[in-house]
Every structure is written in structure tokens, then in C-alpha cells.
Design goal:
Order of helices and strands: HEEEEEEEEEEEEEEEEEH
Helix content: under 10%
Strand content: 25-35%
Structural class: mainly beta
Oligomer: single chain
Largest sheet: 9 strands, antiparallel
Shape: globular
Strand order of the largest sheet: 2-3-4-7-16-9-10-11-12
Length: 289
């Protein structure tokens, strides 16, 4: 399937510059945020319901959203199984992407996983975006899953043939479970922090590394219903393949496409404000007259 790159150099440069300027700041909660995880020791607590370690969802703007990250594997038949087993760890010593005081990260060793329960109900989503920092420490032949929502969408790392570098794959599935894949360039390097953005909006997906636009692809307007409403980190829901090795920090999932403009505009967005509404209709009417 073809991958188009209809992006001008000026927009790419501007976005990359803005990304460099703003990436040193931690994400803040807002009205469009679905999940916000800082991965710091200060956010760790004991999830007593299942006797597990968890990381608080920063719901400072939308109080009691409670999309916390539960560390360890998830069992479909008994969610309480696996307490303390295969839990990734929050590192210490200012090991996060910014290396600033109190900035830690979640580390995976290739046999660990985590999940945010019940983020998505069984229903289609018209637009959403993943933003996070990753630091892969070992490229493994094949691919490694960073984030997965079962039978709906998946963000993977795919090494080059010689394992010297890697690219990102952003996969969405249609109602027949056909995979539609957008690829970034080969911009990932082992033991380096990289900023990843992946976006699905209406009928397009995009993925980028460090603000550098990668591939975009047209996809069906309806993504299939998630088989599970959970968001899985470090592997797929069965935790039996494509295990990730490395660090994850500052994960934000939003219900809004923050890259509108950089990646183009919707066909009905006449005034290019990243929203199709009555203002566009009014402009259309004036031009028609």
C-alpha cells in the first residue's frame, strides 16, 4: 500500500524547531487528555485491589479519571493473577528523558509488561494521538510492541536488517482486521532517547520520530472495536511475543489530533483551524455566492 509524503520543508522545519523547544517540558493534563503517565517514583503507589505496583494517571485537570498504569501481566480470565510477576521497574537516579531531578522512567527487560485497564469502551474512535519518549536498549529481529490496544491499533519498533537502527510502525485495523501501517524513517538509535508521536484521525494515520515527519497513509474511517478496552505497554495483551527492551517515559494519550496542520488538513477545514464547523460552512457559502 502506498505511503505518501505531502509535506513541505518549511512546515517540517518549523515543527521540528517547536518540538525541540517544547520537548524539555513534561506534559500537562488538559481537557483532551485520556491518559497521562509521568513514570516517576513520586507517582508510584500500591494498587491494593490486585496487590500490584501502579503508576498514577496525572488527572490534575480532569479529576478522578483514574487511568492508572498497572505493572505486570494481565490475565483475561483472572485480572488478579500475576501480582508481582513480570513487573517493569521505575528506575532511579534521574534516568528519564530529561535527566532532570526527579525525572525517572519505566524500564522493560523483554519479559515484562504493564496495562491501563478500561481506557477504551467497545466502540470506534474517530481520532486519537500517542505521544511518549522511548529509549530502546536492545534491538531484536522482527519487531517490538511499545503500545497495543487489542485488534484496534498498535505502535511497534522495527529494527533495520543489521540492527543498527530502527523505525516506528503505527498499525490500525479495520473491521475485517486488515492492518493499515504507517512507517517512520529509520531514526531510532539504541541507548538514545527519542520522542515519538503517532496519530489517527478520521481516515489517516501518521507517525514521527523526534519531530521528523515519517509516513502517512490513508485508512478506513472506522477502526475496528477493541477486543479489550485496555492499553498494553511492552507487548501485546497475551504478553507472549514482540516484547520490548528499553525505557518508556512521559506517555500521553489524547482524543485530539495535535498535529493538524503539520500533516495536512481535513478536506472540509476551509479556514485551516483544525476543526470542521459552521465557520467553514459560512466561508463556503460566501465563496459560492
Amino acid at each position: 500500500m502506498p505511503i505518501t509524503r505531502p509535506f513541505c520543508f518549511v512546515l517540517s522545519f518549523m515543527f521540528t524547531y517547536l518540538q525541540i523547544v517544547t520537548s524539555a517540558l513534561a506534559f500537562s493534563d488538559n481537557n483532551d487528555t485520556v491518559v497521562l503517565l509521568h513514570m516517576d517514583q513520586s507517582a508510584v503507589y500500591n494498587y491494593s485491589h490486585a496487590n500490584r505496583t501502579a503508576v498514577y494517571d496525572d488527572d490534575s485537570f480532569i479529576l478522578d479519571r483514574n487511568n492508572d498504569l498497572i505493572l505486570g501481566f494481565w490475565d483475561e480470565n483472572d485480572p488478579n493473577i500475576g501480582a508481582g510477576i513480570h513487573e517493569p521497574a521505575i528506575t532511579t537516579g534521574n534516568s528519564g528523558y530529561s535527566a532532570s531531578s526527579g525525572n525517572e522512567a519505566l524500564t522493560f527487560d523483554g519479559q515484562q509488561g504493564a496495562f491501563v485497564p478500561n481506557v477504551y469502551s467497545h466502540g470506534s474512535k474517530q481520532q486519537f494521538a500517542f505521544e511518549l519518549w522511548i529509549k530502546p536498549t536492545q534491538f531484536i529481529a522482527g519487531s517490538q510492541t511499545i503500545i497495543s490496544v487489542t485488534d484496534a491499533w498498535e505502535l511497534r519498533l522495527e529494527p533495520s536488517t543489521d540492527n543498527s537502527t530502527a523505525r516506528m510502525m503505527f498499525i490500525v485495523y479495520d473491521s475485517s482486521l486488515q492492518a493499515w501501517i504507517a512507517y517512520s524513517g529509520y531514526g531510532l538509535i539504541q541507548n538514545h532517547w527519542h520522542f515519538i508521536q503517532a496519530v489517527y484521525e478520521y481516515n489517516r494515520t501518521y507517525v514521527s520520530i523526534d519531530g521528523v515527519p515519517g509516513g502517512a497513509i490513508g485508512v478506513p474511517s472506522i477502526v475496528t472495536y477493541p477486543y479489550h478496552p485496555h492499553v498494553f505497554l511492552g507487548s501485546i495483551w497475551k504478553f507472549d511475543r514482540r516484547m520490548y527492551v528499553g525505557f518508556i517515559d512521559e506517555l500521553r494519550i489524547t482524543s485530539k489530533n495535535y498535529l493538524c496542520g503539520q500533516w495536512g488538513y481535513w478536506s472540509g477545514d476551509i479556514n485551516k483551524d483544525c476543526c470542521v464547523n459552521l465557520r467553514d460552512l459560512a466561508i463556503l457559502g460566501l465563496n459560492w455566492l
